[in-house]
Automatic annotation (TrEMBL):
The gene is txxe 2325. Belongs to the binding-protein-dependent transport system permease family. PROSITE patterns: ABC_TM1. Keywords: Cell membrane, Membrane, Transmembrane, Transmembrane helix, Transport. It is a multi-pass membrane protein. This is Sugar ABC transporter permease. It is found in: Cell membrane. The keyword Lipoprotein does not apply. PANTHER family: ABC TRANSPORTER PERMEASE PROTEIN MG189-RELATED, ABC TRANSPORTER PERMEASE PROTEIN MG189-RELATED-RELATED. It holds the Pfam family BPD_transp_1. It comes from Thermobacillus xylanilyticus. Signal peptide: none annotated.
Length: 272
């Protein structure tokens, strides 16, 4: 009975892998075709392959968009993790008058629609002289990433045994040393979850980049892909090559951190 159950579960897992993996396999296979090969067999995965589409998208500036997205994503995710860890430690471990109100403010922040803030953010960015600068995206990205990050990390921090912190304090460690040496290492699975979640969100973000960036040299990858689509509307292999390169950092980041992400989701789940 147990063997039959395992076979069914493995069969379902393989079926799901095929369903979920086929779009990526199709995208990659199509990116390796030339125009004539695609029109001869638009749905096939096997054919005569070439790297011409990749060469073309790099010649037309994809690397510039790619580098802009890497810079802004790494900076924003790093700052979000640092700020969210510090705030979460305070909310989870310290008792003060505004503890609960601040926690609920972060919950309320998750409910604010992004599109309702576009005009105020645009006006504020122009007033600060940051319009059409890559750094104009840092503020909005961090602001909209912090609420969910704080909620995840706070819930996870509350599950850490208080005895560990008490032992560190008894050994002479202050709040800062306890946070850095005891709490932060234990938050690693949750920070991986927060990092991957926010990296995916920031890497794919389009609306703020569209509103705050207008110069091609400062565009992020989503805006760059829109430019490619405008130029390659009939060059499907070229578009697929750009999409394949754009999705690689997300796949690599997830495969590297998937174990910590799963453990972070499981350990930080709200218990009923």
């Amino acid at each position: 009975m147990k063997a039959a159950k395992s076979v069914i579960l493995y069969a379902l897992a393989i079926l799901w892998l095929v369903i979920a993996g086929y779009p990526y396999a199709y995208m990659f296979a199509t990116s390796l075709k030339d125009q004539s090969g695609f029109f001869r067999d638009p749905t096939g995965l096997i054919g005569k392959y070439t790297l011409d589409s990749y060469k073309l998208v790099f010649e037309l500036g994809l690397f510039r968009y790619f580098a802009n997205s890497v810079i802004i994503s790494v900076i924003c995710v790093g700052l979000v993790i640092i700020l969210a860890c510090m705030v979460s430690y305070c909310l989870a471990r310290m008792r003060f008058f505004l503890n609960r109100p601040l926690y609920f403010i972060f919950i309320a922040g998750m409910m604010i629609p992004v599109h309702t803030t576009l005009i105020p953010v645009y006006i504020l960015t122009r007033e600060m002289g940051l319009y059409d600068q890559l750094w104009a995206l840092v503020g909005p990205y961090i602001a909209f990433s912090l609420p969910v990050s704080v909620i995840i990390l706070t819930q996870f921090a509350r599950e850490i045994p208080g005895e560990l912190e008490e032992a560190a304090i008894m050994d002479g460690a202050g709040r800062t040393r306890t946070f850095v040496s005891v709490i932060l290492p234990l938050l690693a699975p949750a920070t991986a979850t927060v990092g991957i979640y926010n990296f995916i969100h920031i890497w794919n973000e389009f609306v703020f980049a569209l509103i705050l960036i207008s110069t091609k040299a400062r565009m992020t990858l989503p805006l760059g892909l829109r430019e490619f689509y405008a130029e390659f509307s009939v060059n499907v292999p070229g578009i697929m090559a750009a999409l394949t390169l754009g999705s690689l950092p997300l796949l690599i980041a997830y495969f590297i951190s998937q174990e910590k992400v799963v453990s972070g989701i499981s350990a930080g789940a709200v218990k009923g």
